[in-house]
Design a protein that fits this description.
Length: 677
C-alpha cells in the first residue's frame, strides 16, 4: 500500500491527544458513600477492573478512529501496473462531435453517450485538477484549462458540427492546451467512434502526455450519401439540355435497393428515379436539365436515408449568362464571316476593335478574344493577353498572311506554345477532328457521315515541341496541326496555322466546323466550373472584383441563417474570399458589395468524409496505437469514473478508511453510553 499524499501522515501525532486524555481524565478519583463498608474491598476491586477494560477499549477506538482518518486524508492506494501520478493534474477531454456521432448506440445517439463518458472522466478527478474540453470546432474558448465545474458546464453545451479533424491534429491541440498549464501531470482522453479515415496515430508522437482512448460504436453501420454532382459542360446555356452527373455511394456491406433520388429546381421537386447500388461501391447517374431563363439558379439533390442524414442533400448553384461578350481585334477591318457567325446566336455580343485603339482595362469583361490577322503583336498587347488568359480568358489567334513571325514567336513563347516557322503556299486538306476534346465533343451526331472539312491554300508551318502541352483539335492529313489548344493557368489559347481570310482558307464557309468551334471556345474554361463547395475543406472562393471605389472594400456573404464578412483580397480583376470556418450550415450563400445587388452565389455542402462509417474497435486501436496510448472500453457496463481512478491512482482505499473511522467512532459512543461502571 502507498500514499498519494504521504505528508499527511504527520497528523498521526494527533494520536497523543486521546492518550493524554486517558491518562489525566480517567485517573481522577471519585467519592463514593456507603452505608455498609463490609463489601467495600470486593466492590472496589470489581469496579476498578471493569473500568480499566472499558477505558482501554474507548482509548483504542479513539486511536483507531484518528489513525483511519489520517490515512484517509493521505489517500492510500494499492498500485497497479501503471505508474501513479501524484499531485494535481491537467486533463484534456476531446469529445468527437462530428456528424457520424449522430448514429445510434444501444439506446441514445453516440454524441450523448460521448458526453456521458466525458462527465465520468471529469468526475474521476478532484476539484483541484484543471480541465480542457475540446471538440472538432477547435474554438478559442476550448483552448484553455478550466475548473471541474466549468468543464462539466462545457460538456453540456456540446452539439454536433460539420467540422471533422484527424486524431493526430486533435492530440496536437490537446498537448498545446496542457502545456499552457503549470502542472506536470498531463493526461488526454479522446472519446470518439474512431472512423478509419480520421484515425492517424502515426502522425503524432509525444511521450510527455498520457493518452487514453475511449471508443464508442454504433449499432447501425449503414449509410448512403450523395458524393458529388457536376455538369458535363463547363458552361450552362439557355434553352439547351444540360447534363448533370450525380454520384451516389453505398457505404454499407449490403446492396442498397430502391434508393429514391429527387431534384429540386425552380421551386419544384421532381423525382428523378430509383437507384440500386452494390455494397461498398458507387453509382453514377445523369439528369437532363433544360434551362429556361438566365441568371442565378439554385438546386438541390436529395435521397432518403436514415439515421445518418447530413449527406443526403447536395446543394449546387450555377449562373446562366444573359450574353457572352466577344472581342475581335483586327489589323484593319473586320471579317464579315466572323461577325455573321456570332450574330447567328442572339446572346453573343461582338465588339470589333483595331489593334491600335484597344482598351486593355476591359479585357476581363470578355469571354473570348479573337486576334484576326495582326501583322505585329506589341509587347504591351502580348503582356495583357497573357494575363487575360491566365485569369481564365479564351484567346483565339488567326495570324495574317504578312505577319511578323518574330513578334509571334516572342508572343507564343510566353505561354509557352508551339511557334510559327515559315509561311507555306501549298494547298492542304484538314482530315481529322478531335471529337474527344470539349470543343468538338457532342457536336456531330454522325461522325462517319461525309463531313466537309477545311481546305487551306496558305498556312504556317508550326513547331512540334513535346513540352508545350499542345492538344490538337483539327489536323492535316500528314498529322501536323491546323488548330491547336494550349492551357495557360485558368484560361486557354487556341492557335490556328492558317489565316482567316476567305482567299487563304475556306474555314469560314464550313459552318458545321466554324460556328460550333467559335461557340464552344467562348464558353470553355481551363479551370473547373464550381457549382458547389465543401464546408471546412474549401476555405477560399473566388469571384469577379466589382469594387471600384476609393474607400474600404467590404464584401459580405449572406446565407439563410448567417451573415459574415470574409477575409478579402483583390487580385487584378478577381477577389479572393477567405471563409475560415465561418460557414457552419449547408446551403446557399450570396455575395454582396452593397445590400441591393447580388454579385455571386455559392453552394456549400457538408464534408462527405464522415459518410464512411467504418470504425476501429478497441482491438483494432490496440494494434495500431503507439506506446503510451491506453484503451478504455466505453461500454455501458463499465464505471468509467472508478476505472480511471484505479488506472491513475491504483486501487483507491480512502473510502474504506473513512468507513473504518465512522465504525470506530460508533464503537466509542456505544461503549460510553451502554457500558456503565
Amino acid at each position: 500500500m502507498q500514499f498519494l499524499y504521504p505528508s499527511f501522515l504527520w497528523a498521526l501525532l494527533a494520536l497523543a491527544i486521546p492518550i493524554i486524555i486517558h491518562l489525566f481524565y480517567f485517573r481522577r478519583f471519585k467519592k463514593v458513600y456507603f452505608t455498609n463498608v463490609k463489601f467495600l474491598k470486593e466492590v472496589k476491586e470489581e469496579t476498578s477492573a471493569r473500568r480499566k477494560v472499558r477505558n482501554l477499549l474507548v482509548l483504542l477506538s479513539r486511536l483507531f478512529a484518528i489513525a483511519m482518518l489520517v490515512f484517509a486524508f493521505a489517500q492510500p492506494f494499492i498500485p497497479q501496473d501503471t505508474e501513479v501520478q501524484k499531485g494535481d493534474k491537467s486533463v484534456s477531454v476531446f469529445i468527437d462531435n462530428s456528424f457520424s456521432m449522430n448514429a445510434l448506440s444501444e439506446d441514445v445517439p453516440l454524441i450523448e453517450k460521448a458526453k456521458q463518458r466525458a462527465r465520468e472522466v471529469v468526475n474521476a478527478y478532484s476539484v483541484e485538477d484543471r480541465f480542457q474540453i475540446l471538440t472538432n470546432d477547435f474554438e478559442g474558448r476550448h483552448q484553455r484549462l478550466v475548473s471541474k465545474e466549468d468543464a462539466l458546464a462545457l460538456i453540456d453545451e456540446v452539439k454536433t458540427t460539420p467540422s471533422v479533424k484527424e486524431i493526430s491534429k486533435t492530440l496536437t491541440r490537446q498537448l498545446q492546451a496542457l502545456n499552457t498549464g503549470k502542472l506536470e501531470n498531463k493526461t488526454a482522453y479522446v472519446i470518439s467512434d474512431f472512423q478509419k479515415n480520421i484515425t492517424d496515430f502515426q502522425n503524432f508522437s509525444d511521450t510527455t502526455m498520457e493518452v487514453n482512448l475511449i471508443p464508442l460504436q454504433s449499432v447501425q453501420e449503414k449509410n448512403i450519401s450523395i458524393d458529388t454532382a457536376y455538369f458535363d459542360s463547363p458552361v450552362q446555356m439557355l434553352n439547351q439540355t444540360n447534363t448533370l452527373v450525380i454520384k451516389v455511394r453505398n457505404h454499407s456491406d449490403e446492396v442498397a435497393e430502391n434508393v429514391r433520388l429527387s431534384l429540386r429546381h425552380e421551386g419544384q421537386t421532381k423525382p428523378v428515379g430509383t437507384l440500386s447500388i452494390p455494397a461498398r461501391s458507387s453509382k453514377t447517374d445523369t439528369i437532363n436539365i433544360t434551362i429556361l431563363r438566365t441568371g442565378w439558379h439554385e438546386a438541390e439533390l436529395t435521397i432518403t436515408d436514415y439515421p445518418v442524414q447530413f449527406d443526403d442533400t447536395y446543394y449546387f448553384s450555377f449562373k446562366v449568362a444573359e450574353e457572352i461578350n466577344t472581342l475581335v481585334i483586327n489589323e484593319t477591318t473586320g471579317n464579315k464571316y466572323l461577325d455573321a457567325a456570332f450574330k447567328g446566336i442572339s446572346y453573343f455580343k461582338v465588339t470589333n476593335q483595331q489593334s491600335r485603339s484597344l482598351d486593355y482595362a476591359k479585357f476581363p469583361t470578355y469571354q473570348l478574344i479573337v486576334m484576326n490577322g495582326l501583322t505585329n503583336i506589341s509587347s504591351g498587347l502580348a503582356s495583357e493577353l497573357k494575363q487575360y488568359v491566365s485569369n481564365g480568358g479564351n484567346l483565339l489567334v488567326f495570324p495574317g498572311v504578312n505577319s511578323n513571325i518574330s513578334s509571334y514567336k516572342t508572343f507564343l513563347n510566353e505561354f509557352p506554345a508551339n511557334e510559327l516557322v515559315t509561311l507555306e503556299r501549298t494547298e492542304r486538306n484538314v482530315s481529322d477532328v478531335n471529337t474527344e476534346e470539349f470543343i468538338f465533343k457532342d457536336v456531330f451526331e454522325n461522325r462517319s457521315a461525309n463531313l466537309k472539312l477545311p481546305v487551306t491554300k496558305v498556312n504556317y508551318k508550326v513547331t512540334n515541341f513535346g513540352g508545350r502541352g499542345e492538344e490538337r483539335l483539327l489536323s492535316y492529313r500528314d498529322g501536323s496541326a491546323f488548330l491547336s489548344k494550349y492551357r495557360k493557368e485558368q484560361g486557354n489559347l487556341y492557335l490556328c496555322a492558317a489565316p482567316l481570310d476567305e482567299d487563304q482558307s475556306n474555314l469560314v464557309r464550313n459552318a458545321e466546323i466554324f460556328v460550333p468551334m467559335l461557340y464552344k471556345m467562348a464558353i470553355s474554361t481551363a479551370k473547373d466550373t464550381r457549382i458547389a463547395y465543401t464546408i471546412g475543406k474549401d476555405e477560399v472562393v473566388e469571384s469577379n472584383n466589382a469594387f471600384t471605389g476609393a474607400g474600404e472594400m467590404k464584401y459580405k456573404l449572406k446565407g439563410k441563417a448567417e451573415e459574415f464578412i470574409p477575409v478579402q483580397r483583390a487580385i487584378g480583376s478577381k477577389v479572393v474570399l477567405g471563409i475560415n470556418n465561418q460557414i457552419s450550415q449547408a446551403g446557399f450563400y450570396n455575395l454582396y458589395l452593397n445590400p441591393t445587388e447580388k454579385l455571386d452565389e455559392f453552394a456549400f455542402n457538408f464534408d462527405r468524409k464522415e459518410s464512411n462509417l467504418d470504425y476501429l474497435n478497441a482491438t483494432d486501436l490496440a494494434n495500431i496505437a503507439g506506446d503510451g496510448i491506453q484503451i478504455i472500453e466505453g461500454t455501458t457496463a463499465v464505471d468509467i469514473t472508478q476505472l480511471i481512478g484505479e488506472r491513475s491512482r491504483g486501487i483507491v482505499l480512502w473510502r474504506w478508511f473513512i468507513i473504518a473511522t465512522i465504525i470506530f467512532l460508533i464503537i466509542e459512543a456505544l461503549l460510553l453510553r451502554f457500558w456503565k461502571v
